[in-house]
Design brief:
179 residues, alpha/beta, Rossmann fold, 21% strand, globular
């Protein structure tokens, strides 16, 4: 595989955030979208700069994320979807393709793309992670993206680092918690 050629531009040069939400499993992705919107507004003070786009399903999230990155209008991307295990291993192929695709979008474009894809065994597990007793992974994906943008801005010298060195992140907003 060729070395990623991600842009050296600062993501802060483009301040918008693209929120891409799968229509498939809408009873789950709707609450994920709402959680991501709440977190964006909590952190940014308003919904200004947040643009929401629909994807037909989870598999299409990476190509739409790539289009958003290529537009050069967005500092970052949050991709939300839900894949629930069925009778076959189809879910594993879809989930892996989405994870790999979003990482490639980030690395090749230089625009961070947060992974907000639920991969659960049952609809009940999905709902628990979409605002139920396991939190809202849409909110966590947005928090991870905004934290990533803050850190990149600090690396580019545009603002102080968001945390003191060695400080552990809040579990609810840990980038690893969106997986």
């Amino acid at each position: 595989m060729a070395k990623p050629t991600g842009s050296n531009r600062s993501p802060q040069a483009h301040s918008g955030i693209a929120l891409i939400v799968s229509r498939y499993n809408a009873s789950v992705t709707g609450p994920l979208r709402e959680g991501a919107q709440r977190e964006y507004i909590r952190r940014r003070g308003s919904a200004a700069g947040l643009e929401i786009y629909e994807a037909p399903g989870a598999y299409e999230l990476p190509v739409i994320a790539q289009a958003a990155a290529d537009s050069e209008r967005f500092a970052g991307i949050v991709a939300l979807g839900c894949v629930i295990k069925g009778e076959t291993s189809h879910d594993k192929y879809i989930s892996q393709a989405v994870a790999d695709g979003l990482m490639l979008v980030s690395l090749y474009s230089g625009v961070p793309a947060a992974f907000g894809l639920l991969t659960t065994d049952t609809p009940e597990q999905a709902l628990a992670r979409a605002g139920g007793d396991k939190g809202n992974k849409g909110e966590e994906a947005m928090a991870a993206l905004l934290d990533t943008l803050d850190t990149i801005a600090a690396i580019h010298g545009e603002r102080p680092a968001p945390r003191a060195s060695g400080q552990k992140p809040d579990k609810a907003h840990s980038p690893g918690s969106t997986r």
